Task: inverse folding
């Protein structure tokens, strides 16, 4: 899977940037003194052909840069293009830099005498006017590493030829991390033929080796594996490497592990198949860790590292003497050999002025026959137009300059470098900013390099149909690209590369938001196209925090519902090496909105349509060709009516992370389909584990493949965090598996797990179902090992790979009871539950049908056999809605509506089917039932209990009737959060926090323990 960027979006500028050739120009540099507020009158035309310094500049006419004059700098305290004015640097036909030596610099300094009465100082912008800036485009602004490079290297092998990309000696470039470390900037010192490259080892052989630690481990690319010569003879502590072709060897790099290192060793070479060994280097001060040994050895066919036995006694740590004996042998983690193959033309490389600090991946990685392009981005930050601010106090004051175009007009900035910009915690003070432009298809930010921003790289605010394409953003703090208020629509955000040098640099508090609220791309306006963007090194990669801003922000506040706003086209984005989330969709449930031309919602935010149907988006949003690797998490807490199509995960700590979801409103789509979850055991980061959601629905997991390992809890874990804060419930979710390929997991790995990080019932209630003969090993249903009563109805217990689950040839489905109060002891009797109760945790009697109330969503649940009859007993209070399975799952098995008989001990009897009506029943649980609707008129089975007292409920977890009184805290006034491991998100004790509240139960123990800012 190679995440190939789409072509840059072509959006032509209008001919308005072409000024008539007979225009009479004034010499701009001769018009004003350096301490003057300089004004270009509405009928004036100024041409800048020499350096110019003024206190401030107001443009009401036309101010144009001479595109043939070299090296011009305009220095101002602020610059405002007023209504009707135009500011032009270059043009689409004559970009700055087309003529040799021509560059343009706009320097926005902080010292100003004449402050603007509204906007203050240190800004560059316009109001109902036109700003058009055109630097010289390169054929490519970024590429990928073609080959991996080790720490300390200065030669980069690039996927594209550097000279063909227009890159030059002296250009500043950046190299993205691929090790969750630091992304670094360098200058190109030279572009030339490579002096060396990593040599391919055809075979590895050792004088002695342990069977489980063979010689091949030293050349497998995995620093976590090793070769051991334990208990080898006096002359057996050697490692031989044979090359695929003769090579001129320039150096060898070895990584010994102390205390079993080689204090002394010879590096020997062989130039013919049976020729003698010749000493090329002798090391007498060996120690643990990486060590480079320089060689000058031509025509080498094989190389050998030989350690004399006498030198292996009394080894210790840090090169000191110790007690390690010689017979314990050597531990060698990895060997790399460099040089050039005889007769081969060496590729062109970029030579850096300083070495890279860490290893960087390049090229392709193969896992179980599948190929993935996991390579560092290399970006060129050089441009012919520079817009810059003061740098001497930039990191102390947290302020540079800001830019914007406001209210109407056009801003079109292409191939410029924007640096030392943004003003932390000042509203609207961003590096590049479209502000309240309305419908603006002529507004473009393309090919720019935004470098060192204190507050957001590019902001699209109240603007629609604009283009943000092929920009490089480096160390844009808070957010790289930001849609601000929630009404922004139909903008194209494509082919951008967003890199933070270290996530701690860019994760900062801003505008009242905590540092956790930010990311490489940070969307509050959701309906925008996100195409082929790449993000690396942030705390969160692509983040959509709709639930944190449920009413929007700023001018759109109260006019939008970002959590329920559909996405635009979402395809081909790559997130890697982000500290927490790569893709982070938070809690998005897109619905069918009706909006005006400015993105304000007229209707559709409600969960139900007027006739009570689920208002989830039809057709659903599709997240296509997402590629995430080296992130802690990928996914969301909650999300519905979203399809993940051809998703690829490689070596994330969690292959996918999802807590709550729902059935699709269209009745047919799949949650995750045609996707790959892979983990390379040679990579020290990552585990293969999908943490899936729970709730009253069917989770459709279709045509997905697992590759490699090792797995974490299991390859596929059902019901993550179920019954705890922010997750779904009750936990008897139905996982419908189709075409799941487990065959390429590394040996003897757990395939599924019932419950993960969940409340007790979360480990008991989930159900797996399948129709094919692969996904569940030929079984049709599987319940957890704790429901031992299902063994009595013909089901059989499985092995550890299936989490000890109990597999059935008959259909097992979910049965739910919905109530907004805790009904106390409720017992289900029937097939699967005729056993003695197991009172131990996590079962707590569920195996015998003793159901527990799940207060977050207000209900009970257990798996049942479709077609069977059950009896339920309880001391019923208020109305209790009964729901059986889903039409989606019955339709999939193609046997018509599935049925269930239910006898209620108070005399009610129900005959239910999977196709019963569900109008006004919240797809996430009864707590979201539409107010004022008589459910007995809409649903097939309702238990009428004793009427509830009309008194306010003072507890958050059930047991009393009526709504929560918001003025009475539901929890204990004082207490302490009890985390086993302190989280990175701040937390506090909140007596108003209750079981099921957003961010509550943060420690999994105390409902009053809440996360801050969520």
Result:
């Amino acid at each position: 899977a190679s995440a190939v960027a789409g072509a840059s979006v072509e959006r032509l500028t209008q001919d308005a940037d072409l000024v008539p050739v007979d225009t009479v120009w004034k010499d701009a540099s001769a018009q004003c003194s350096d301490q003057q507020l300089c004004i270009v009158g509405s009928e004036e035309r100024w041409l800048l052909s020499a350096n110019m310094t003024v206190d401030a500049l107001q443009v009401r006419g036309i101010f144009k840069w001479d595109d043939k004059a070299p090296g011009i700098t305009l220095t101002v305290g602020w610059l405002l293009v007023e209504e009707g004015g135009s500011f032009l640097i270059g043009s689409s036909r004559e970009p700055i830099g087309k003529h040799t030596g021509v560059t343009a610099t706009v320097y926005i300094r902080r010292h100003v005498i004449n402050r603007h009465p509204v906007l203050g100082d240190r800004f560059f912008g316009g109001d109902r006017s036109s700003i058009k800036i055109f630097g010289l485009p390169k054929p490519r602004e970024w590429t990928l590493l073609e080959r991996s490079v080790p720490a300390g290297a200065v030669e980069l092998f690039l996927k594209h030829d550097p000279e063909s990309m227009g890159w030059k000696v002296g250009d500043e470039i950046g190299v993205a991390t691929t090790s969750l470390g630091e992304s670094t900037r360098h200058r190109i010192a030279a572009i030339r033929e490579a002096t060396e490259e990593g040599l391919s080892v055809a075979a590895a052989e050792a004088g002695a080796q342990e069977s489980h630690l063979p010689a091949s481990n030293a050349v497998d690319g995995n620093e976590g594996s090793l070769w051991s010569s334990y208990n080898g003879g006096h002359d057996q502590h050697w490692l031989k490497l044979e090359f695929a072709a003769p090579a001129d060897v320039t150096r060898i790099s070895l990584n010994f592990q102390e205390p079993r290192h080689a204090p002394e060793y010879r590096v020997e070479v062989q130039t013919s198949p049976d020729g003698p060994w010749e000493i090329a280097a002798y090391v007498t001060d060996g120690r643990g860790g990486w060590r480079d040994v320089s060689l000058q050895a031509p025509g080498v066919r094989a190389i050998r590292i030989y350690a004399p036995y006498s030198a292996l006694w009394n080894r210790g740590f840090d090169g000191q003497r110790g007690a390690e004996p010689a017979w314990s042998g050597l531990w060698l983690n990895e060997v790399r050999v460099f040089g050039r193959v005889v007769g081969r033309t060496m590729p062109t490389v970029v030579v850096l002025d300083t070495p890279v600090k860490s290893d960087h991946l390049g090229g392709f990685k193969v896992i179980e026959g599948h190929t993935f392009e996991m390579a560092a981005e290399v970006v060129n930050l050089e441009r012919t137009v520079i817009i810059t601010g003061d740098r001497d106090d930039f990191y102390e004051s947290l302020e540079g300059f800001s830019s914007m175009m406001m209210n109407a007009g056009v801003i079109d900035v292409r191939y410029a470098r924007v640096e030392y910009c943004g003003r932390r915690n000042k509203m609207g003070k961003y590096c590049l900013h479209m502000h309240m432009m309305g419908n603006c298809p002529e507004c473009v930010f393309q090919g720019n390099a935004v470098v060192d921003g204190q507050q957001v790289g590019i902001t699209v605010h109240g603007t629609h149909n604009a283009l943000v394409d092929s920009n490089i953003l480096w160390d844009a703090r808070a957010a790289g690209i930001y849609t601000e208020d929630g009404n922004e629509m139909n903008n194209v955000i494509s082919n951008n590369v967003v890199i933070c040098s270290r996530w701690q640099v860019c994760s900062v508090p801003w505008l009242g938001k905590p540092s956790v609220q930010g990311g490489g791309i940070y969307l509050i306006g959701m309906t925008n196209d996100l195409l082929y963007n790449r993000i690396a090194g942030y705390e969160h990669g692509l983040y959509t925090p709709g639930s944190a801003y449920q009413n929007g922000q700023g001018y759109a506040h109260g006019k939008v519902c970002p959590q329920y706003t559909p996405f635009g086209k979402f395809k081909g984005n790559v997130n890697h090496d982000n500290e927490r989330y790569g893709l982070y969709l938070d809690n998005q449930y897109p619905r069918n909105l009706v909006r005006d031309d400015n993105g304000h919602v007229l209707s559709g935010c409600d969960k139900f349509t007027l006739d009570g149907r689920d208002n989830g988006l039809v057709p659903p949003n599709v997240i296509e060709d997402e590629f995430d690797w080296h992130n802690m998490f990928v996914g969301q807490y909650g999300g519905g009516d979203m399809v993940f199509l051809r998703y690829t995960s490689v070596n994330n700590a969690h292959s996918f992370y999802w807590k709550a979801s729902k059935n699709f409103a269209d009745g047919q789509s799949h949650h995750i389909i045609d996707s790959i979850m892979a983990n390379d055991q040679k990579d020290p980061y990552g585990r293969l584990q999908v943490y899936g959601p729970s709730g009253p629905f069917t989770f459709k997991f279709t045509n997905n493949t697992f590759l490699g390992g090792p797995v974490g809890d299991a390859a596929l874990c059902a019901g993550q965090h179920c019954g705890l804060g922010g997750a779904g419930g009750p936990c008897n979710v139905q996982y419908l598996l189709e075409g799941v390929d487990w065959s390429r997991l590394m040996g003897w790995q757990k395939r599924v797990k019932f419950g993960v990080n969940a409340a007790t019932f979360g480990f008991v209630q989930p159900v797996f179902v399948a129709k094919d003969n692969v996904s569940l090993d030929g079984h049709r249903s599987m319940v957890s090992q704790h429901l031992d009563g299902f063994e009595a109805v013909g089901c059989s217990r499985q092995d550890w790979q299936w989490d000890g689950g109990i597999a059935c040839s008959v259909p097992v489905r979910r049965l739910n009871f919905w109530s907004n109060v805790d009904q106390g002891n409720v017992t289900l009797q029937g097939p699967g539950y005729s056993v003695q109760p197991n009172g131990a945790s996590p079962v707590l009697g569920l195996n015998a049908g003793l159901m527990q109330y799940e207060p977050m969503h207000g209900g009970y649940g257990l798996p049942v056999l479709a077609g069977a009859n059950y009896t339920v007993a309880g001391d019923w209070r208020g109305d209790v809605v009964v729901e059986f399975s889903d039409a989606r799952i019955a339709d999939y098995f193609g046997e018509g509506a599935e049925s269930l008989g239910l006898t209620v001990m108070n005399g009610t009897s129900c005959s239910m089917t999977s196709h019963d009506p569900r109008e006004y029943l919240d797809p996430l649980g009864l707590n979201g039932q539409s107010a004022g609707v008589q459910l007995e008129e809409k649903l097939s089975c309702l238990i009428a209990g004793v009427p509830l007292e009309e008194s306010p409920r003072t507890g958050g977890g059930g047991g009393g009737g009526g709504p929560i009184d918001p003025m009475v805290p539901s929890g204990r006034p004082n207490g302490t959060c009890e985390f086993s491991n302190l989280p990175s998100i701040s937390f506090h004790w909140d007596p108003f926090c209750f079981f099921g509240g957003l961010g509550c139960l943060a420690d999994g123990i105390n409902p009053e323990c809440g996360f801050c800012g969520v």
DSSP finds three helices and 80 strands in the chain. Residues 950-968 have pLDDT under 50 and may be disordered. The radius of gyration is 33 Å. Residues 622 and 643 are 5 Å apart (CA to CA).
